[in-house]
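User: Hello, can you help with two protein structures?

Assistant: Certainly.
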Amino acid sequence: MENNSEKSAVNAVQSAAYPRLSQPNLEKNKQEKLEMFWTNQRREIENVIDFKSNLLLPPNRIKKIMKTDKDVRMIAAESPVLLAKACELFIQELTLRSWFKAEENHRRTLKKDDVTDVIMQTDSMDFLLDNDADATGGATPSVVPFYVAGGSNGRT
C-alpha cells in the first residue's frame, strides 16, 4: 500500500508541474510568453543608458569577426555593439522557444532536437537551414545540416 501511495504522490507532483492544457490553450500560452519576453526586452533596452556595459557577447570579438571579411574596411563603433545585442536577443528567443518544446515533451532539459525543431518550424529562423534550392526544388530541406543538428565543428 505504501508503494501505491508513493506512486500517486509522484503522479500528483508531476501533474502539478506539467498541467495538461489543450492544444489551443498551449499555443496561446506560448504566444503570450513570447509577447511578454519581447515586451520585457523592449523595456530593458529603453532603460539602458550604456549598452557596452550590459552586453553578454564581447563587441571586440564581433569586430574581429567582421574584419575577417575582405569587403569590410571601416566599422562604425556602434555596429559591433548593436550586433552583439541582436545576437543576444536571437539566442534568448531560440532558447525560450526550445524550452517550450521541452515542456511539451514533459522534460526539464533541452535537447538538440528541441532546438532543431524550433529552427525548422519557425519562419524567422529558417535561414539556419541548409537550403539547397536545386536539390529540394525550392522547398524546405528534409535534412537539417550537421552544424544545426549539433554536430562537432572539429574543435574539442
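That covers the first. Now for the second protein you mentioned:
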Amino acid sequence: MRYVPTNCLKPGMICGKRIIGKNGQLLLNLGAVLQDSYIQKINELGYSGVYIEDQFSRDIMIDDIISDTLRANSVKAIKELHTGIAGKKIDAMEKLDTINVLVDEILSAVISNKGLNVNLMDLKIFDDYTYYHSVNVGVLAVLVGTAMNMNRQVLHALGVSAMMHDIGKVFIPKEILNKPGRLSVDEFEMMKSHSERGFNYLSERYAFSDTTLDAILDHHERNDGSGYPNGKAGNEISRFGRIIAIADVFDALTSDRPYRPAMSPSEAIEFIMAGADTSFDMHVLQAFLERISPYSPGTTVKLSNNSTGIVLKNHRGSSLRPMIRVIRENGQEITPYDIDLTHDRNTLGITIIGTEDI
C-alpha cells in the first residue's frame, strides 16, 4: 500500500487500511472502493491522507506505531480530561489512572517496534486537534526517549508528561485556540500563558511529580533562551521539556491547521534542523533524527534522476537513503523495480529531492 494525500484521492481507488471515524467506529474497511461520497467524508473528518492499494504497492506492508483502538482510547481519555477540567466536572486524578494504563500500552507498542519508525502517517488524522496532538506528542516523545536509552519507568513518566503538556489550553478561550488567522499581540500573550496555567493548575491541586510539572512548564522554552514563559536556556530547561519541545513542534508542523496546510515530515524535519542548538537541544535532536524518518514507508518520493518511487523501508542511521520502489521514469509509468539508496553502489549519486503527490 502507499500513502495518498486527501486532495489526490479519486473514485475507484482501493483502501489499503481501515479508515476509522471520529469516535473509533469503522468508516471504510480494507479493500473498500472509494466513491465521491466516501472521499467527501474523509475530508470532513480531517484526514490528511489515507493508504490505498494499487498495482505498485500491494505487497508493501505498513504497521501502525499504535493501534486504532489504542489511539482512539487515548484521545478519548485526553478529551475527557480537558473537557472535564474546563467544565469543573471532574477531578484530574480520576483520569490519570486511565492515562497511566494507556501510556503503558503505548510504551509496549513503541518498544516492540524495532524499526526506525514504522509509520508516522498513522498519527495524522482527525479534526480534534488538541487531543490528537497530545497523543501524537506522547508517542513521539517516547520514541525519542527510547533513542536516549531511557528505562521503562522514565519512559512512562515522559509519556504521561507529554500527553498532558497542553493541559493549560483548557483555560484559553476557544476563539483564540481555533482562530483561523494570525493572533493579535494580546491574543498571542494569552496563548503563551497556557504552559504556566497548566503548571499552576496541577501544582496547586495535585501531587504530580516535579518532573511532569517542569515538563509542562518548559515545553515552549528554547535552547538559546528565546522561549517562554521564563526564558530558560540550555540545561536550565528540564530534560523532558527539551524532548517535548521537539515533539510538539514536529507534530504541529505536520498537522493541518486553520491558518496553514500541513508540512510533509521531511519539510518539518528540515525546519527543526535549522533550529539545531539555537531552538533545540542538539543531543535531543540527534535522538529525534535517529527514530523519526522524513520519509515513512508508503510515501511517494521524487528522485534526483527524475524518477518517482514509493518508500519501502528505512535504514536506521541512514534515514535519508531508504529502500525505494521506482514506478515512474521521466513522468512515464514503468515496470516497477526496487533500489536501495544505502546499499546499492549504483545508486550513490541518487538522492530524494522531495515528496510527490500522485
